[in-house]
Amino acid sequence: MGNMARRNDEVEALLQEYADLLSITGGDAFKVRAYERAARAVGGHHEDVSTLDAKRLRAVPGVGRSIADKVAEYFRTGTIRSLEEVRARIPAGVRELMAIPTLGPRKAALLYHDLGISSVEELVDAIHEERLRDLKGFGPKTEENILHGVALLRQAGGRVPLDDAWELAAEIVAELSGVSGCLRCVHAGSLRRFRETIGDLDILAAADDSAPLMDAFTRLPLVAEVIARGAKKTSVRTTKGFQVDLRVVPVQAWGAALQYFTGSKEHNVRIRERAVHAGLKLSEYGLFDAESGELVVSETEEEVYARLGLPWIPPPLREDRGEVEAALRGELPELVTEEDIRGDLHTHTDLTDGVSTLEDMVGAAAGRGHEYFAVTDHAPNLPMVRMSDEKMLAQRERLRAVAGEYPALTLLHGTELNIDPEGEVDWPEDFLATFDVCVASIHSHFTLSGKDTTRRLLRACENPCVNIIGHPTTRLLGRRDAIDADLGEVFRACARTGTALEINSAPDRLDLRDEDILHARRYGVKFAINTDAHSVRSLDVLRYGVGTAQRGWLTADEVINTWPLGRLREFLRKGR
DNA sequence: GCCGTTTTCGGCCCGACTGTTTTCAGTCG
To answer: Which residues form the Helix-hairpin-helix DNA-binding motif class domain (predicted)?
Structure first.
């Protein structure tokens, strides 16, 4: 799976790059869109595109003769000639300008052609030197927006999205686990704790002799540079500029090392304090008697915690947010797990902006062992999707038709509504009431005042047909701030009206985020952990939503899509 | 560049918002 995903991802990235470069050069907008569409389709495709012959490649929606040829050329030669040609004309830094929110291909092209700007740094310098002032279409507000966008980008501080880190870790762990003499290998660090972005990736392995593991590690194809190489620790930088540390420990020290390298630093400080008070000393090598220096325990994390008078603490809780105190009181939450999730309540198909068909999405849901599955395509007020009542009803018929093939899976017909500035949604109540489930989300007017946004969300909660507030803060990691709202008021309204808050699992959203979940659960709110999947493959993101929910201390009972269908349906009736 | 119970051309995702203009270009969802 990991490997297959990467081949498709490679092609998706290349086609998207080609689309971006075409748009910068002012190429035909429809051609640009064709490449973007093909990129998304390949990225979301369920088969490994490197294994497909020409005919089956062209069966991927949006892939025709020309793009199929380019994909084949890439797998045959390792490059795409036409991409190389356009790369030679446009520096990579110009494309990187497009990562700045509010800065698209036209402005990037203008900045490059008129001022020779080809990096974010040069752009920031140029703004401070007031060199943008004479540029057509650029005013003071544009400068301000660019600087804010750059600040958002830099907030991520070189950190990597959770899914990128996860996939990289999975690949490295799989590779190293096969090395002779490797007794254990896992990822640790902030990835094990499911933080929303990852700084450095920490891989931990156990072996008697570390040399074969270190050799294999430094020889991985994705390694661009070996930063440090030792017997216990080796650090590399990947071709994408990401630092990965491998630590190899004797298997006897596994538990102590895993505990130490999982962090967080703040959690470990608390744990070591407890050790000191008990006359012990904790390090990555084990728990030792402070006086005699004799090893007490080190083989498993459970033993280490137990010897300190604590139950094992799940990694997502290890942030020094009261988990040690809760553990001491015997009040650690029994965290929701991916296995607890019985179904997804927010997904899309190619009827709107998804890339997989309804049949493929449903088949994949059945394959995952879901008990229920909601298809919730976009409602008409999102103009790009050109939705209509007729299309929705036709989809409902199609859903009914496919349902017969999966007797163990209950299909729910839903929609993702748009909450307008007044808090109203797309359809009147009588039509909404015909859906099994309605998600309602903000997709426009992100910059209303806090007061107006709060009122807007409250109004949506009070709609008797709105079951779930989708991606409640609408933030995009590294791209868009959370909306300004009095979340306490919103959470109170959700609890009162029987409206669930979504934990959107998309790695660039993770919305609600962990702190907001901790806040919201104090109001007795219910949650829904959804994928918002736009393809079969993106159904996999569920783990990130569950990890985020765990960081928010959620138990299965607080999450409506862990419930049996009957209890879920009762909740979705919302007292109607 | 893709696609076709419109089949080899002529459409294709469209409307709103923002900031810049002085009638509109660029970006976004």
So the answer is: 55-74, 95-114, 130-149
Q: Which domain holds residue A101?
A: 95-157
**Is residue A1 scored above 50 in pLDDT?**
no
Helix (H) or strand (E) holding A502: strand A500-504
Chain B positions within 7 A of any protein Cβ atom are 1-3, 11-21, 25-29
Q: How far apart are CA A95 and CA A105, in angstroms?
A: 8
pLDDT by residue (tens digit) across A403-449?
A: 999 999 999 999 999 999 999 999 999 999 999 999 999 999 998 88
Residue closest to A483 by CA, chosen among A521, A528, A451? A451
**Is the CB of residue A480 inside 7 Å of nucleic acid strand B?**
yes
- What does pTM read for this prediction? 0.88
Cα of A12 vs its chain's centroid, Å: 17
Round to a whole number and report the distance in Å from the CA of A352 to the C1' of B15: 16
Distance CA A573, CA A204 (A): 48
Instruction: Single out the residue in A90, A116, A143 at which a domain terminates.
Output: A90
Could you tell me if residue A333 is inside a domain? no
Last residue of some domain: A90, A106, A140? Answer: A90
Mark whether A183 and A207 lie in a shared domain: yes
Q: Is the CB of A58 under 7 A from strand B?
A: yes
